[in-house]
Amino acid sequence: MIEFENVSFRYEKEKPVLDDVSFRISPGSKTGLIGANGAGKSTILKLLCGLEQGSGKITVGGLPVIPENLSAVRRQLGFVMQNSDQQMFMPTVYEDMLFAPLNYGVSREEADRRIDDVLARLNITELKYRHNHRLSGGEKRMAAIAVILANHPEVILMDEPTSALDPANRRMMIRTIRELPQTCLITSHDLDMILDTCETVILLHAGKVRAAGSAETILKDRQLLEECHLELPLSLAGKN
Q1: pLDDT digit string (tens) for 52-67?
Q2: What mean pLDDT is predicted for residues 124-149?
Q3: Domain made up of 2-88+156-227: CATH architecture
Q4: Strand partners, 78
Q5: Residue 237 reports pLDDT greater than 80
Q6: Cα–Cα distance between 240 and 232 in angstroms, integer?
Q7: I want to staple 158 with a disulfide (CB 3.0 to 4.6 A). Which of 124, 186, 206, 210 is the partner?
Q8: How is residue 142 annotated by DSSP?
């Protein structure tokens, strides 16, 4: 369970990015976090990880996201960043995948087993010993997911996972998200991807939750989306 209760956040001397935001995300669900630029989507992910601090209460798996709990909270979370270069800092994919499990006390044998299992599941075994600087954008994005999965998080946060991907890699990303057993919270402007992968949606507008519920219901509501400066998913645009 992820829960936000009356959460507000502002950068110094600026208007609030989030204003009294409350929502719940059930275990095992896939939720899309949508809104126009500046709506606060990425800020919510940063607050969940404790990278920013606001007012109100945030809990992950029953643990309040407060400084003394950050280590335990972050062990539950895997954050796939929009820019994979900010996430992958070791020379090879294998070394990046190995880093977190070993630092959390997992044995080398178990870590290697996890790595091989994750790479096979994502169908990217050939990337194991590749140097990160030689990966294409799509390969690096898939490798970034593999790095997170090797640490066995309970919750996966994804910030714009399909941005800048070509059609083939976008399809691969959608298939991967669908097959993930973990709770997923996904920010994206790609509303077709959200419709294809998420059961529920949280729509942010002007720092508040404008709507929350069924992805299909919200993403078919042209008037609601346009009021929040969004457009219907392309797959639905010709049907309404």
Answers
A1: 999 999 999 999 999 9
A2: 91
A3: 3-Layer(aba) Sandwich (3.40)
A4: 156
A5: no
A6: 9
A7: 186
A8: H
For residue 1, name the pLDDT band (cuts at 50, 70, 90): confident
The total of other beta-carbon atoms located within 10 Å of residue 133's CB is: 10
Tokens 């976090």 appear where?
Answer: 33
Distance CA 230, CA 189 (A): 9
**Which pLDDT value is given to residue 202?**
97
Inter-residue contact 4 to 22 (CB < 8 Å) = yes
Per-residue confidence at 156, pLDDT binned at 50, 70, 90?
A: very high
Considering only CA atoms, which of 226, 220, 213 is closest in space to residue 239?
A: 220
- Give first-to-last CA distance, the chain, whole Å: 35
Q: What is the pLDDT of residue 240?
A: 54
Phi, psi of 49 (to 5 degrees): -85, -5
237: which 2 tokens?
Answer: 């645009």
Going from N- to C-terminal start, the domains of the chain cover 2-88+156-227
Residue 92's pLDDT band (cuts 50, 70, 90) = very high
- Residue 179 dihedral angles phi and psi, to the nearest 5°: -85, -10
Locus of tokens 């294998």: 94
d(CA 65, CA 196): 30
Q: Tokens 């507000």 sit at which residue?
A: 8
Q: How far apart are CA 195 and CA 80, in angstroms?
A: 19
Instruction: Report which of 41, 80, 82 is spatially closest to residue 184, judged by C-alpha positions.
Output: 80
